[in-house]
Amino acid sequence: MTIIEKILTAHSENEVVTPGEIIDVKIDVRLARDFGGANVVKNLKDNKLVLDDNAKTFFTFDCNPTGSDQKYAANQQICRLFARDYNIPVFDINSGIGTHLAIDKGLAVPGSTVVSTDSHTNILAAIGAFGQGMGDRDIAAAWSRGSVWFKVPESVKITVTGKRSEGVHVKDIILNLLKEFGANTLLGYSIELEGAAIEKLSLDERITISSMATEMGAIALFITPSEEILAYCTERSGKACEKLTPDEDASYTKTYTFDLKQCFQAIALPGKPHDVVPVKKVQGTKIDSVFIGSCTNGRIEDMRIAAEILKVNKIAPGIVLKIVPSTDEVWNQCLEEGLIKIFKDAGALFGNAGCAGCASGQIGQNGPGEKTVSTGNRNFAGKQGMGDVYLSSPSVAAASAIAGHITTSDSLPEAPSLFTSLKVAAETKAGIGEDIDRPFINTVLEGKVWIIDEDNIDTDMIYHNQHLSVTSLEEMGQYTFGNLQDWEDYAEKSEPGDIIITGKNFGAGSSRQQAVDCFKALKNQAILARSFGSIYERNAINAGFPVLIYDNLRLLELLQRDRVRLDLESGLITNLRNNKSTEIGKFSQVQSEIYKRGDLLKL
Predict the structure, then answer these.
(1) Which of 243, 407, 551, 595 qualifies as a FRET site for 139, CA 20 to 30 Å off?
(2) In this predicted model, what pLDDT tens digit does every residue of 294-320 receive, in sequence order?
(3) Once rounded to an integer, what is the mean pLDDT over residues 473-493?
């Protein structure tokens, strides 16, 4: 049998398994991350399922260890509460990437089985374990039943020959393999990698290779454990680990030979991990940022490679370098070895251990048009942000950060590439009162009212901070009052022309402009309040959005959705249902001038 066939046989009721056969596989280690973990909990609760074995069940919070995203923070708390109720161990936000922890904490050993809500769980093949990323239902089933069904894959063997050239790192090897086999040649296969050069690989190097089996479309990329790996796993797990090898007469669907001599210093072009070219082909390409980390290149050896290049250099002016170790253990090693000081002296941002930008969870994302060199495993459009992402080794990444353009460590320039300064001058400058966007300014408004009889409605209630990255006015409206109890559906029921009437201190809190602009996006016409937060009032006035203060509106006998007429300059408001009127605070001179211009910035 092949390696995967041996593992699956040992974890099933079958005496032998064959490719194509569907079997129940007993799962030794069952992980759920902050990404997907809350849905696992929901599936368990909705279906009234109980845990099979909480000692084999773990939460790992690695996608967003800073808890900086409200949705991630909520999911993490859901998982924590469930863990407390059912005594489930939690590797919380200070721990690192779950698949790495499974190895380093001795949860997984050669020959064991692991599932997680992580598509790179097959990283466990680096120690000869079977790991699979699965969806929320699968993980919930594994947690409650202790097993999942699985189709036994066919196996292929790649024999690696020769020696790698000077300057070729293990990330270059896996990128070259991706170039050779593409994203689907080995789709659905279990790969075994063998050869003298492979046998010598360290644990960190094996992790880099096995972590990118997913990008090759493979079930897993197994490397037979060496004596060094067995000793490591034995020490970490406290269990005697035995060497797992395929039988001499194991049957492979396909066999390949790959010569390391053909490997070059590689880089994957934006959009496709398998679109690999020599670094020299794109050398000199100006970049904006660099990311070093992820489950592929966040180990201590990766950190040391980067530090060796950065220790006598600083990153180029304007370049952003973000470095994130894979686990807290690696983070502490960086501290003890002085690597963090090297990184900081070079000008880098060094972050909490975790997945980082690869999971859209924390450090490492880029913006539109930004060019990034990343040591991650994926560069799909939108995966690590809105810009272009090139995949490389830590060596190329660090060298590129210093050069300001894509390059290798042996081709560092005497002076870094600098950004070209562009001066943009306005073609015309309109005079005061000349506003082509607002040729007619109506100072008498009519609209239906929303009466929100509450004081101290703050800017987080109006427009929650989880949406602060939104810059398009058209997108802001949908989030209006999304965090105000009983008014979360305001954006759906609001109509153009609506006028809001509320209580004291409306807009207390932060200075976020979106808390004003969201009403403009919905085409609401004005807000009346007993008083406004001082920053909010300025923001509204400067945006040309009418906000007025009233003392008492009882004379109007207002009902929800009454239609009113509001004269901004005289301060007269009339309920058109009963024609009753009263005076409120009117526009000041500066408010009137800005309103008629449309915005403080319009002249």
Answers:
(1) 243
(2) 999 999 999 999 999 999 999 999 999
(3) 96
Q: What is the CATH number of the domain that holds 517?
A: 3.20.19.10
Per-residue pLDDT at 10 exceeds 80: yes
The residue written with tokens 């698949």 in the block is 99
| Amino acid (one-letter) located at 239 | K
Q: Which helix (H) or strand (E) holds 398?
A: helix 394-403
Measure the CA–CA gap between 303 and 301, rounded to whole angstroms. Answer: 5
Residues 20 and 78 in one domain: yes
505 contacts: CB under 8 Å, gap ≥ 6: 455, 456, 457, 529, 531, 532, 533
The answer on 278 and 238 residing in a single domain is no
Residue 589: CB partners within 8 Å, gap ≥ 6? none
| 408 and 265 Cβ atoms separated by less than 8 Å | yes
**Other beta carbons within 10 Å of 341:** 14
Residue bearing tokens 């049957």: 251
Structure tokens at 119: 């598509």
Provide the 3-class DSSP secondary structure of residue 155. strand
Same-domain pairing of 113 and 181: yes
CB proximity list for 264: less than 8 A, separation 6 or greater: 165, 168, 172, 176, 278, 279
Q: How many domains does the chain have?
A: 3
Tokens of 180: 């050779």
CA distance 524 to 501: 12
Q: In what order do the strands lie in the sheet with 90-91?
A: 90-91, 57-60, 29-33, 113-116, 130-133
Residues 80 and 44 in one domain: yes
User: In angstroms, rounded to a whole number, what is the distance separating the alpha carbons of residues 119 and 506?
Assistant: 46
Q: Is residue 120 part of a domain?
A: yes
Full-model pTM: 0.82
Neighbours of 256 (CB within 10 A): 16
Last residue of a domain, one of 262, 278, 296: 262
Round to whole Å and give the CA distance between 400 and 402. Answer: 5
- The domain of 130 spans 3-262
Q: Are residues 251 and 278 in the same domain?
A: no
Coil, helix or strand at residue 344 = helix
How large is the angle between the packed helices 328-336 and 339-346, nearest 10 degrees?
80
Residue 29: CATH number of its domain = 3.30.499.10
The percentage of residues in the chain with a pLDDT greater than 70, rounded to a whole number, is 96
Q: Which of 411, 428, 456 is the last residue of a domain?
A: 411
Q: Are 255 and 275 in a shared domain?
A: no
Give the pLDDT of residue 412. Answer: 96
3-state secondary structure of 431: coil
Does 160 fall in a domain?
A: yes
27 and 55 Cβ atoms separated by less than 8 Å: no
Cβ contact 140:49 at 8 Å: yes
